């Protein structure tokens, strides 16, 4: 599997109709029970609010969206924790954490992607992956896709989108042609085998002068650690729990080393 840390975030209600039809976003494995994704993937516009944990099922270890492999793993979600300052209008602080109701075995095809400990320079080649559309308005890909794209300068990003915060970065090509797209949201921007960005938004897919915008993961490392340390890794329960501070800390993060 090209991106063994890649997760398909699905809605249970849609998934019950046909396997694979529930996919709405991507996600990234960062511990044996924690997946990071985009906060806008948890927002339900019709409800004007956020979905509950019980509405999700997470699939990993698969190359194909609509077909289970012998390596496929499936988990219900125990808790969903959105960043408290997420703004659905601007997509600022577009990051969420899914705490799954089970352990991912490290002897499986699934592995965690280490959180980046550095800000990469302009031009650094990175990889974005997912099952998203291959053109604006197109259907989602049934097989996991990946593309190499470079980090774009902040100045170029601002020329495209206006004054973006340092908690967002841009990646792609100013001439267009290669980009993330609908259905890739929440998935990884991987640079040198570390998690640097989370797919957030953009113009039309692969549009000239509009590179992809990604949540800048390094700006949220402390928040991720703090929330992760509030989970009790010995408790398993399906449902719609809100964030609770637990006394026991059993998580182990994989950190990038240089």
Structural overview:
- This protein has 258 residues and is mostly beta strands.
- It folds into two domains: 6-113 and 219-230, Beta Barrel (Thrombin, subunit H), CATH 2.40.10.10; 124-218, Thrombin, subunit H.
- The chain has three helices and 14 strands.
- The strands form three sheets. A six-stranded antiparallel barrel has the order 1-2-3-8-7-6. Strands 9-10-11-14-13-12 form a six-stranded antiparallel barrel.
- Strand 12 and strand 13 (194-201) form a beta hairpin.
- The longest helix is centred in the middle third of the chain and has 8 residues, at 154-161.
- The radius of gyration is 17 Å and the shape is globular.
In brief, what are we looking at here?
The protein has helices spanning 12-15, 154-161, 221-228; strands at residues 6-11, 23-29, 34-37, 43-44, 49-50, 56-60, 73-82, 96-100, 125-130, 145-152, 168-171, 188-191, 194-201, 212-216. It is mostly beta strands. A six-stranded antiparallel barrel has the order 1-2-3-8-7-6. A six-stranded antiparallel beta barrel has the order 9-10-11-14-13-12. Strands 4-5 form a two-stranded antiparallel sheet.
């Amino acid at each position: 599997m090209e991106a063994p840390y890649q997760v398909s975030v699905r809605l249970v209600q849609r998934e019950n109709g046909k396997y694979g039809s529930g996919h709405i976003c991507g996600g990234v494995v960062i511990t044996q029970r924690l997946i990071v994704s985009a906060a806008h993937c948890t927002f339900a516009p019709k409800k004007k609010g956020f979905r509950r944990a019980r509405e999700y099922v997470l699939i990993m270890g698969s190359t194909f969206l609509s077909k289970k492999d012998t390596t496929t793993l499936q988990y219900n979600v125990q808790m969903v924790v959105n960043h408290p300052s997420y703004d659905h209008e601007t997509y600022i602080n577009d990051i969420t954490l899914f705490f799954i109701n089970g352990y991912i075995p490290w002897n499986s095809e699934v592995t965690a992607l280490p959180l980046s400990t550095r800000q990469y320079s302009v031009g650094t080649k990175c990889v974005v992956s997912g099952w998203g559309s291959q053109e604006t308005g197109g259907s989602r890909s049934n097989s996991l896709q990946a593309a190499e794209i470079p980090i774009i300068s902040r100045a170029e990003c601002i020329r495209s989108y206006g004054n973006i915060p340092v908690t967002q970065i841009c990646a792609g090509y100013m001439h267009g042609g290669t980009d993330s797209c609908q259905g890739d949201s929440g998935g990884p921007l991987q640079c040198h085998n570390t998690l640097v960005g989370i797919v957030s938004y953009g113009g039309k897919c692969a549009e000239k002068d509009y590179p992809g915008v990604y949540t800048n993961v390094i700006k949220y490392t402390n928040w991720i650690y703090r929330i992760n340390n509030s989970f009790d890794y010995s408790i398993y329960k399906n449902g719609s729990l809100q964030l609770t501070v637990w006394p026991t800390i059993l998580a182990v993060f994989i950190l990038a080393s240089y």
